[in-house]
Amino acid sequence: MKTTIILATILSLAVAAPSHRRPNINTRANLQSFTGALGGITATPVEDSGNPDRPFQVKGDTFVNIAAALQRSCDQQFNACANAANGGDKTLSVGACSDQKSEFPISRIL
User: Where is the signal peptide (predicted)?
Assistant: First the structure.
């Protein structure tokens, strides 16, 4: 009888105890620090993919190192900028997009 009461008490305390687990918040930090944005076109975010073998992600594509992910982000920004310039945005030129691409930090590393 005492064992039953003790077990019931322990069980009720365990269930009633507050949980110290962190909430599962699905947020991703942008690892891309380049802020240039001709025509309002920003660099594609570089995020943690959650995959330890390919930890960096750009628009769903994963990469084994940060340099490759940053290069993809840079290329995507350049392409979007050039497409806007070629599509008639008079505030942009492909040359200006190229100049911005050369300012991209990864462009100086590779």
Answer: 1-16
- Spatial neighbors of 98 by CB under 8 A, at least 6 apart, are 78
- Alpha-carbon distance of 89 to 28, in angstroms, equals 32
Q: Do 46 and 81 touch, CB atoms closer than 8 A?
A: no
Which phi-psi region, left, alpha or beta, contains residue 107 (left: φ > 0; alpha: ψ -120 to 50)?
A: alpha
Distance of CA 25 to the CA centre of its chain: 14
pLDDT tens for each residue of 55-107: 999 999 999 999 999 999 999 999 999 999 999 999 999 999 999 999 987 65
For 6-62, how does the pLDDT look when each residue is reduced to its tens digit (9 = 90+)? 444 444 444 444 444 434 344 568 999 999 999 999 999 999 999 999 999 999 999
Number of alpha carbons in the 13 Å side-chain half-sphere of residue 103: 15
